[in-house]
Every structure is written in C-alpha cells, then in structure tokens.
Specification:
The chain has 452 residues and is an alpha/beta fold. The protein is built from 17 helices and 22 strands.
Length: 452
C-alpha cells in the first residue's frame, strides 16, 4: 500500500508532497523549512530515501539539498538543470524504487522551465499519481515566462505538448498533484478546486481542450507581473541554499526601532490591519502576518535591505520568520513583540489613520478626494471607479511621487493590499483612508464604475 501526504504552503500558494510505502518515502519539491517534511515522515514512521525536484524553482527557496543531507537521501534533480552541488541527475524515463511495489518514474515535461520534470508514482506497476510541479496544474498550467523572455513563446508551446503527453500516457484516474496553482504567481492562472485527475483535466484544462496556437495566444495574453524577488530564487536554488536559522532575532527596544527607522531600514508591523490603523509606530509598514506576507514583502522590499519585525506575540513572530525564509529573507535584523506601547519611545504618540468602506467613499463623493486603486492590471481591467488613479501595490513604494496632493482613499479587492498601501502613504506623511471592503461593494454603493 502507498500513501501520499500533502504539505500545504498557504502563504506562497504551493504544495509539497511526501509519498511512499510502509518503510520509505520520497519528498517532492520540499519547502526550505524542512522540519515540516521530517515531521510528516516521523508521523508515518518512514525514512525519506529520496528527495526530488521537478525544476529549479523561481518562487521559493528549496529545502531539497538540506533535506537530502539530513535524511541521508538521494537528491534527484533534472539533468538539464545547471546546479553547483552534487545531485543525482534525472532524465526522462528514469525509475527509482521507493518502497516494496512503489516506484517513481521521471517524465520530461518542459514548459514551466526547459528542464521541467514530472514524476509518476506507481503502485504495483500501475500509475496512481503524477507530481506535476509547474507543468499541468488544476485547470491551468505553470507560467512559461520566468526563465528568459526570448524563450517564453517556445516554452508556452512546450507546456501544451507536455500537458498532452501527460494526458496521453496516463490513465484518467491518475491523480494530478501540482506544486503550484493555489495562489502562487508561478501559475498562469489560479486553480479552480483542490483536487484533480488526468481525466478531469482532459475535460476542462485549456492546455488539453484548445489547439496550440489558441492556447499559446491566450496564455501569453493573461500573464501578469512577475514578483521582483523571483529574480533571486532561481540563482539561490541553483547555487544550493544554506540551512535555515529559525532562532528568534535579536530583540529591539523603542530606541533601536527608532534608530533603524532613522537609518532608512524597513520596520514591518505584522499585526492585523485594524490594529495597525488604530495605532502604530510612525514610519512602519503593515504587512499582515495572516495575509500573503512572504509574497508581498519580498516583492516590495529592496533586496537585501534590513528588516525589523514587530509582532503581537512570539508565535506570530516565529510564523513570520518561517514564511520569510522560504523566499530568502533569512534573518530579520531585529524584532519586538507586544504593541505600540512597548515600541514607542516615552512621550511619543502612536500614528494612526481612518478606515472606511466603499459606501463611505460614495457618501463623501469620490471627486472630492484622490482615489487610489492598488489592484493588479488584470483585476482593474474588469472595472474601476471613474477618475481613480491606478498604481499596483507592488509598484507604489517606487511611485509615491505620482500620487496627487490631497487625502488619499486607497482600495484593492478586499482590504489587505489597501492596508499595505495605506501604511506606505502614511509613512510618507500623506493623509490616507484605507478602504477595507470588497470591491463588489463599490457597485452596491452606487460609485460610478468604468468597464474594462
């Protein structure tokens, strides 16, 4: 009998897997915080004999090299991947024994990267699951534009061919187990649903229902901005990531927090956006720990700039550290827990700004203030408030000078990104109101909308 355990990486929108039999198992595309994988193996009472990568990842730092070292496992990496560390190079058709009757076969599936490789899990000789990495996802495919712009169309066509190879070579009942597609920007579109099979994908995935030219044209037309930190993930993974250090950062008192702000470093408040708006250290930025912390902080912070984390509890701080090491922000410069009463120097008042809704904006009148839309291009294309300014949140820290004078009412699709943007504007000394509301409410409020 075989098993497959899924290890969710919700903040990044990815999944890793542990699969095997009674005694031994394989880890697929493991996260950098490998203790989660080791704990999953311990719960199963199995030894990790193999660690495999479907590709050199562009959206997170892998834990594969360190996991293989810790577990004494063979580290399988596609042969076409250029790396600087010893590994077992894997080519199309290679098969390894995982446990009695449980085998893993490599299947070349270029497209997301030129060397991308899927792995088919067989039980008693029959295929039961395909670890498809960034090739065939649930309802979509991995984006083909993360390697080199000149290769994008070629890789998009390869994605179509790879999807058809999987659908042709595998039975309909084979489970499709991708790494990307659950919120990751490595996906060309967001997956619909939580589980799938080859048969389901054959019926509904555009890679399998559209001709190659139509598929490629639609795929390329739908690609959005690439998170800036992706440029650092591939080289880090190819060089061989260092082990992580999740011990608590050096504690910072109010004087040090002020000094770090004065030096131009980033001080990030991890509390929820309501608490931040009500009172915070002036100059700090709000990236909610419960939001997509790693994605947006790594996307927006100048790479390598020191960051100090402010958390409401030691647990929140530890969770944030875990999220951030996955994207290469290894060690916060310092940290503090509690609240503004502990983070502000004596006599220093907390900063704050109001929150509101689209109904509040309609009541005031959108023509009386600056309305700033920080959604992505594709979201805005579906409709926007007449007269609003559009700067995607990941560009705002570089484009603050483009925001006109006056009070700024900032919104996104749900509130999280508006809170980030409001904190940036507040830190720059602007009068800001964070619209903490779903964009559907703009219509209900009677705001004038322009259709895309």
């Amino acid at each position: 009998m075989f098993f497959i355990d899924t290890i969710e990486l919700e903040g990044l929108g990815n999944r890793s897997y542990l699969a095997g039999g009674e005694r031994t198992a394989v880890a697929v595309d493991p996260p950098r915080d490998i203790d989660r994988v080791l704990a999953a193996a311990a719960r199963r009472g199995v030894r990790i004999s193999h660690v495999v990568e479907t590709h050199i990842h562009n959206d997170y730092v892998t834990g594969g090299l360190e996991l293989a070292r810790m577990a004494g496992a063979a580290y399988l990496v596609p042969a076409g991947a250029r790396v600087s560390f010893p590994r077992v190079p894997v080519s199309d058709g290679d098969t390894v024994d995982i446990d009695a009757g449980v085998t893993l076969t490599a299947m070349a599936t270029p497209g997301h990267t030129p060397h991308h490789t899927a792995y088919v899990l067989h039980d008693a000789g029959s295929p039961v699951a395909a670890f498809t990495g960034g090739s065939l996802l649930i309802g979509t495919v991995g984006r083909p534009d993360l390697v080199e712009p000149r290769l994008t169309e070629q890789l998009a066509r390869a994605q179509h061919a790879s999807a058809h190879r999987l659908a042709t070579d595998l039975p309909d009942a084979t489970a499709v187990l991708p790494t990307h597609g659950f919120g990751s920007f490595c996906s060309s579109a967001q997956s619909e649903g939580d589980a799938s099979t080859i048969g389901k994908e054959r019926a509904g995935n555009a890679a399998l229902t559209a001709d190659v030219d139509t598929f490629v044209a639609d795929l390329l037309a739908g690609l959005e901005d690439v998170p800036a930190y992706y440029a650092h993930m591939g080289p880090t993974n190819a060089a061989g990531p260092a082990p992580v250090d999740l011990t608590p950062p050096a504690p910072a008192d109010a004087e040090e927090i002020a000094a770090r702000l004065g030096a131009g470093e980033w001080v990030v408040d991890l509390r929820n956006r309501i608490a931040f708006a009500e009172g915070h250290v002036a100059g700090s930025f709000n990236f909610e720990a419960e939001g997509k912390l790693a994605t947006y902080l790594a996307w927006m912070i100048p790479w390598g700039k020191p960051v100090t984390l402010l958390a409401e509890s030691a647990g929140q701080l530890a969770d944030a550290q875990r999220e951030l090491v996955r994207v290469g922000i290894d060690r916060p410069a310092a940290a503090a827990t509690g609240g503004p009463d502990r983070w502000l120097r004596e006599g220093e008042p907390p900063a704050s700004f109001p929150r509101s809704t689209f109904a509040g904006l309609a009541e005031l009148g959108p023509d009386r203030v600056v309305v700033l839309d920080v959604r992505r291009d594709a979201e805005r294309a579906g409709g926007w408030i007449e007269g609003s300014l559009h700067i995607p949140v990941h560009e705002l820290h570089r484009r603050l000078g483009e925001v006109p004078d006056g009070t700024v009412w900032v919104h996104c699709a749900g509130g999280m990104r508006a809170a980030i943007a409001a904190s940036l504007l507040d830190a720059a000394g602007r009068d800001v109101v964070a619209v903490d509301d779903g964009f559907d409410s703009a219509t209900d409020a009677g705001l004038p909308l322009i259709s895309g």
